Amino acid sequence: SDSHFPVPISPHHVEYSLHYPHFFPSPDSNSSSKKIEFADIGCGFGGLLISLATLFPDTLMIGMELRDKVTEYVKERILALRVSNPGQYQNVSVVRTNSMKYIPNYFEKSQLSKMFFLFPDPHFKEKNHRRRVISPFLLDEYAYAVKPGGIIYTITDVEELGEWMKSCLEDHPMFESLTEEELEADPVVKLLSFATEEGQKVSRNGGQTFKAVYRRVVPNV
Ligand code: SAM
């Protein structure tokens, strides 16, 4: 149950010096202005984060994963990469948490520039749709955490879930879809299909995928 993992009482209490010791050498350095900007929700074995870490070496990023053993594996993976590649992978970390409950404990308003939902669990039955990580209610939370102009990336091999995620994003007043040209120009979009373990499995099996990539709207002033 949730009681088995600690949850910071506010984003200010996230222990940056434990996650990113290279950037925050002491607990006091928590007050530094550098903040987590990318969140991979349900990161699984961490493949996307590992790719992003070297593509955006100065951006702090975190995976949020519910399964304890999987989270431990990702931690070990990152530590091993840090050892074998001195100076690299210092910007990536993982936390065991329930992202459906605790996003506001980790991120302030407009803190994130990218959020990822790669191959989330489908929860097929209608009565279980409320367990989906993209929903109208959760998009309100994500719209709060993602800064104007920030991007939400989703992909799935389950057509029905793909349509659901797209329609939730399409119907939400705070998100707008990227144009084909923008999708083409964004190097991160290319990672969605292949960077994660689930994506590689789907592609090995020749499965189709369905993407929805939306921008947090910039309010008119
Ligand atoms: N994104 C990874 C990939 O593409 O390989 C993993 C996909 S896997 C099908 C879905 C992951 O989401 C699982 O690792 C699961 O434990 C995690 N998950 C499900 N619900 C979650 C929640 N509420 N909070 C955090 N992680 C969750």
TrEMBL record:
The active site is at D121. S-adenosyl-L-methionine binds at G42, E65, L66, N98, S99, L118, T196, E197, E198. It comes from the Eukaryota. It is found in: Membrane; Nucleus. Catalyzes the formation of N(7)-methylguanine at position 46 (m7G46) in tRNA. Belongs to the class I-like SAM-binding methyltransferase superfamily. TrmB family. This is tRNA (guanine-N(7)-)-methyltransferase. It comes from Mikania micrantha. The chain holds residues 684 to 904 of 904 of the full protein.
